[in-house]
Design goal:
With about 180 residues, the chain is an all-alpha fold. It has six helices and no strands. Helix 3 packs antiparallel against helix 4, helix 3 packs antiparallel against helix 6 and helix 5 packs antiparallel against helix 6. It is elongated.
């Protein structure tokens, strides 16, 4: 066997993998650039890091990024719901904070079936119906945060999580809009 052919046989597959990985990162980056440009509520860095970290995003089409982003919302809502439960259980809160946390727990609990329904609608290409379900998740995060803001001096322990839920949901809506308008 020619020693020169061994490195070439190894190098070519590695180069092909690197080219695919670079094009996937570029696709996610350009998609997130469009989303962040069109929606001031979406941070480009959150969009790219979230989508790039998701399994299967490396070879995803725009339609696949849509389902991946819905899953990210579901994971975020599920985790936030669990976090709220732990805050209620382990924290020493005054009655106002306990009520806010309980309200948020209920809002995030109610959001889970909406996300599951959005997934079904998205899979059936019923984007308007999926939009309604995802928008209700955004409303849940906003309503949760607003509850803390009603009393002066109260700092929400869920501010970042509510913001992430809102942004991840906005990413879903933007991707659906890109698919519907053919702009992706």
């Amino acid at each position: 066997m020619n020693p020169c052919s061994i490195p070439l046989a190894v190098i070519i597959p590695i180069l092909m993998i690197m080219i695919r990985a670079t094009s996937a990162i570029d696709f996610i980056n350009s998609t997130c650039s469009i989303i962040a440009h069109d929606d001031p509520n979406v941070d480009h860095a959150l969009c790219t890091t979230s989508l790039q970290a998701a399994p299967a995003s490396g070879c995803a089409t725009l339609r696949a990024l849509g389902i991946i982003s819905i899953r990210l919302v579901r994971y975020n809502v599920t985790d936030t719901r669990c976090y709220i439960k732990q805050l209620i259980k382990n924290g020493r809160w005054d009655s106002y904070m306990k009520q806010c946390l309980s309200d948020c727990f209920e809002l995030f609990s109610d959001a889970l079936p909406s996300i599951k329904q959005a997934t079904r609608y998205y899979s059936m290409k019923k984007f308007d119906d999926a939009n309604i379900q995802i928008t209700s998740v955004m409303t849940a995060a906003t309503t949760c945060e607003d509850g803390f803001n009603e009393k002066r001096g109260v700092v929400s322990p869920l501010m970042k999580r509510n913001n992430d839920t809102f942004q991840l949901s906005a990413i879903v809506l933007s991707i659906m809009h890109m698919i519907q308008t053919g702009s992706g």
